[in-house]
Amino acid sequence: MKNNNILQLLMQYTKEGTQFTDKKQRIVLAAIELFAKKGYANTATSEIAKEAGVAEGTIFRHFGTKENLLLAILIPFIKHSLPQMADAIFEEVLAEKPKTIEEFVRALATERFMFFKENRDLFRIFIKEMIYHDELKNELISHISEHALSRIEQIIQDFQEKGEVIDIPAKILSRNIFTTLLGFFLSRFVLMSDNVFLDDQREIDYIVQIIVNGIKQ
Amino acid sequence: MKNNNILQLLMQYTKEGTQFTDKKQRIVLAAIELFAKKGYANTATSEIAKEAGVAEGTIFRHFGTKENLLLAILIPFIKHSLPQMADAIFEEVLAEKPKTIEEFVRALATERFMFFKENRDLFRIFIKEMIYHDELKNELISHISEHALSRIEQIIQDFQEKGEVIDIPAKILSRNIFTTLLGFFLSRFVLMSDNVFLDDQREIDYIVQIIVNGIKQ
Amino acid sequence: MKNNNILQLLMQYTKEGTQFTDKKQRIVLAAIELFAKKGYANTATSEIAKEAGVAEGTIFRHFGTKENLLLAILIPFIKHSLPQMADAIFEEVLAEKPKTIEEFVRALATERFMFFKENRDLFRIFIKEMIYHDELKNELISHISEHALSRIEQIIQDFQEKGEVIDIPAKILSRNIFTTLLGFFLSRFVLMSDNVFLDDQREIDYIVQIIVNGIKQ
Amino acid sequence: MKNNNILQLLMQYTKEGTQFTDKKQRIVLAAIELFAKKGYANTATSEIAKEAGVAEGTIFRHFGTKENLLLAILIPFIKHSLPQMADAIFEEVLAEKPKTIEEFVRALATERFMFFKENRDLFRIFIKEMIYHDELKNELISHISEHALSRIEQIIQDFQEKGEVIDIPAKILSRNIFTTLLGFFLSRFVLMSDNVFLDDQREIDYIVQIIVNGIKQ
DNA sequence: CATGAATGAGCGTTCATTCAT
DNA sequence: CATGAATGAACGCTCATTCAT
Question: pTM here?
Fold first, then answer.
């Protein structure tokens, strides 16, 4: 779980294949912060420039349009970081060779919890902009299906064969695990205020328990 | 389950306590439709006026500002409709005197599924605008806590006393049921495309099964 | 020759079929003045607004875009005023039943001289914007061909039949008369400074003499 | 008629009296091409730089401002190339010792036709930019008067003395010849589309015939 | 000399809001 | 109450110009 911060991944994948320049990085960071805080539509490019300490024109020199700046944040994440992350997640989650379904769900929930905690800003941008941005929505959903759901499904099947998990189609179960976790993270990191919640570890414990009880044989 | 449509409820509760005039109603209906379709920020008041068949000035005569129009849609819903709805929900859910926790969860999930299905537009506005609108967020959360979570908690406790539900604090359980359902509805009605899903009844069946298995003794 | 001023004609032909409002008129007049003086590209909409004594937004309320404002000046002129003018020109020119080719050319040259003198601003806008605006160019040329050249050709043929005009195809002659006059007007009203020229009457006398000698039998 | 291309002349005359460097030449050539195609105002210096294969800064190192670049194209042409051209024109036109006014006009028309055909781009820049650029306009007109009109006038006088040309003041006749030719070239190379025209030779024949008939005794 | 990233004034355009009718 | 023309602040964006390298 060493590198959970997307921005570092983000920096590695640009059209040019080169590192972002200093100013470009500062623009991206300022944009993420402001988009997350106030939303894309309510953030003026002049504010981003001010926050980043560059001239407004510099934003357009690097990204062409404001929308491109948004996409320059989101698309590489979807296209490159997300699959790579999916690999990393399952590598890490499976590294400890979870023997029970509970160990697996706990590892997954913990890993994702930490991830969303660390990248709450980006997560918020995603959720907000996706709602009316079908292109992004479909792109993201197809990537999730391909890279995450299919793996969870496989793992569930393994546990089903061992008789540890109830006999509902693995496709359904995996989607419900995914949905349940997503709902939890949405409540936790997007919708609700922090003060509603207990400490992290107990939160994770409960959601794991709920999920696992829900699917255990 | 006779009156699931919020708009009719919405019309009955205004600050002034009077009925909305015809034009005011048309403005609210047009605004809801457009806010839901394109988002608050991307909807011009001129569009709302056109869609409602009134002059742009009329909107401002009635609501003062565009934001007030949004709040005039959301606040009464939260303040009046939501509690009333909560009453109605539990009245209805409990009307059939659910004998088991499963019957209760199924009744609740079904009722809310139908509700969100019918009011998807308003649901979307809520989610989207709440993300960066802390006032709304807190208002909504406190109402939910007060009117929904506390009742679920009470019911859970009853079932715990009967030994049907596991011995996790009822507060936690109820919040997890709530979160799980909300996550499901967010996926189902806000984030995902329709075509990802099975038919309604099977969707409900599975989410109920997951939740119930998760908390059954 | 009572109504040589295009703007009055311009005012009569709008999409709505109504008279321009006062502000709309002032915008059009200011735009013509500034476009003519400084060119379309070098005139800011803020300047037009200032000159017209309206808010900048008012321009866009009425015309949508800056280019539409240009076209709202030029297109009605081409589509409506120009054909109508062509009618008027030949009506007037032929009203005095010119017995000789010289009388005809003189009447035509005089009428057009006065016209361009009075509408020099609009003439300049036309010439300047047409140079790189093929749509306008083609529109104008086709209207001129249809409404002006064909009539001149007819009249030339009549004089050829009377043996007054040399036996070059009437099509060629008419285009050369047209071109010669146009060249004269371009030099006179667009390119050259006023001080290069003699008094109007002598200018007209000479150009007529040149043209007539050029085509007389 | 060996060297009709202005650009080569252009390259030889700069303020500094030195040869243009390679990069400077490439900038000028690119600018001429783009100014002619899209107009001065619609051509970005970045485009010129790209087309010329130099950095944008290089343009400003050489020319200081964009307007200076335009003037660096037009002024030397007016100051140096135009008089030199005038010499060359009349040298060439008179080389064949035109015995009749028709031979003279034909030689002049042919020479200029070929010239404008070959330098249509530059011609367009001139016309377009001159319209609102009084400095340029006056500069050009005074040079034309001095170097071209005065010579034509002289030649016309000669033919008048031989009784070949009508007895209108030579000043007027020469300006009318000039104007008629200019009008023809404007129509031919700036305003009209190519497809309106016949083949070059017949075009020339007719314009010559018109002019000559117009002034022949 | 040459570069090109950076600049920021100025542009066309949008739109919530006002107000005379 | 209702209207819709008018407003002007604020926006995204362009581009001639500068300057450190």
Answer: 0.76
Contact check, Cβ <8 Å, A137/B209? no
pLDDT at D17: 45
Q: Which residues contact B11 (CB under 8 A, 6 or more apart)?
A: B19, B20, B25, B28
The tens digit of pLDDT for each residue in D18-61 reads: 455 778 888 988 998 888 788 888 899 999 999 999 999 999 99
Structure letter (DSSP) for residue A41? T
**Nucleotide F3, nearest residue via CA and C1':** B55
- What is the SS3 string spanning C113-174? HHHHHHCHHHHHHHHHHHCCCHHHHHHHHHHHHHHHHHHHHHHHHHHHHCCCECCCCHHHHH
Using a CB-CB cut-off of 8 Å, the residues of chain A touching B124 are 131
Single-letter amino acid, residue A56: E
Q: How far apart are CA C112 and CA A94, in angstroms?
A: 90
**Tokens 């400077």, residue located:** D24
Set of chain C residues whose Cβ sits within 8 Å of the Cβ of D196: 141
SS3 of residue A150 by DSSP: helix
Between these two residues, C158 and C122, which has the higher pLDDT value?
C158
Question: Which residues, including other chains, have CB under 8 Å from residue C53's CB and lie 6 or more apart?
Answer: C26
- The token duo for D105 is 């006009």
Question: A56 beta carbon < 7 A from strand F?
Answer: yes
- How many angstroms is C1' of E5 away from CA of A67? 22
CB half-sphere exposure, D165, CA atoms < 13 A: 28
| Residue C58 confidence (pLDDT) | 93
Question: On chain E, which bases lie within 7 A of the protein's CB atoms?
Answer: 1-20
Q: How many helices (H) and strands (E) does chain B have?
A: 12, 0
Residues of chain A with pLDDT under 50: 1-4, 6, 13-19
| pLDDT 10s digits, A194-215 | 655 567 888 888 888 878 887 8
Specify the residue for token string 């006059």. C181
Please report residues of D whose CB lies closer than 8 A to that of C190: 131
